[in-house]
């Protein structure tokens, strides 16, 4: 194996490319600085600075106005209730137990109301059934009365060919 004689270069191609990029960047910066210095000497830079400052001031005012509007909107109690952000405020956390108790009472009142409605419907249904049974009982009493009157009994006995007669002597009372 034969080695060719050559000089050893300790800088790698990547390092060389990085150095070239750094040199190019420094040339650009120097060129830009010279250009800006020339503009400052000519008085053009002051106009640009004033325009930049005016733009920055306008942007700052716009963001402040937006922040003010957002703060006003977020500070509104109605908006806080609507979005639910009222629950994350420091002062609202001390009212959580009360809100929880109100929620429990709300659901409890709903449960009581539905239970009362259920029992009322059941009571109404049972009341109607009792009314129907009373009417049926009255009809049966009327029917029994018609069948057990003296004239009805006499008529039934005649239809069967049995003659009914009243005893001539009063009946005897049996005592215990």
Structural notes for this entry:
The protein is an all-alpha fold and 176 residues long. 76% of the residues lie in helices and 0% in strands. The chain has five helices and no strands. It has helices spanning 13-42, 44-75, 77-83, 96-148, 150-160. The longest helix has 53 residues, at 96-148. It is rod-shaped, with a radius of gyration of 55 Å.
Give unreliable regions as ranges: none
SS-based structural class? mainly alpha
Helical fraction equals over 70%
Q: Regarding quaternary structure, how should these chains be classified? A: single chain
Number of strands: 0
Give the helix tally. Answer: 5
Span of the ends, CA to CA: 153 Å
Shape verdict:
rod-shaped
SSE string: HHHHH
Strand content: under 5%
Whole-number average pLDDT? 84
Cα-based radius of gyration, to the nearest Å: 55 Å
Largest sheet: none
């Amino acid at each position: 194996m034969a080695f060719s004689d050559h000089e050893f270069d300790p800088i790698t191609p990547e390092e060389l490319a990085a150095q070239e990029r750094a040199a190019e960047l420094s040339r650009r910066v120097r060129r830009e600085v010279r250009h800006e210095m020339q503009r400052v000497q000519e008085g053009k830079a002051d106009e640009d600075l004033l325009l930049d400052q005016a733009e920055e001031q306008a942007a700052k005012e716009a963001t402040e106005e937006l922040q003010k509007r957002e703060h006003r909107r977020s500070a509104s109690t109605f908006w806080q209730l609507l979005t639910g952000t009222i629950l994350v405020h420091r002062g609202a956390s001390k009212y959580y137990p009360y809100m929880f108790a109100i929620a429990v009472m709300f659901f409890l009142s709903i449960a009581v109301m539905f239970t009362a409605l259920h029992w009322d419907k059941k009571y109404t249904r049972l009341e109607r059934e009792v009314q129907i049974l009373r009417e049926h009982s009255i009809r049966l009493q009327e029917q029994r009365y018609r069948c057990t009157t003296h004239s009805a009994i006499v008529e039934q006995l005649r239809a069967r060919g049995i003659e009914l007669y009243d005893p001539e002597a009063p009946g005897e009372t049996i005592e215990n």
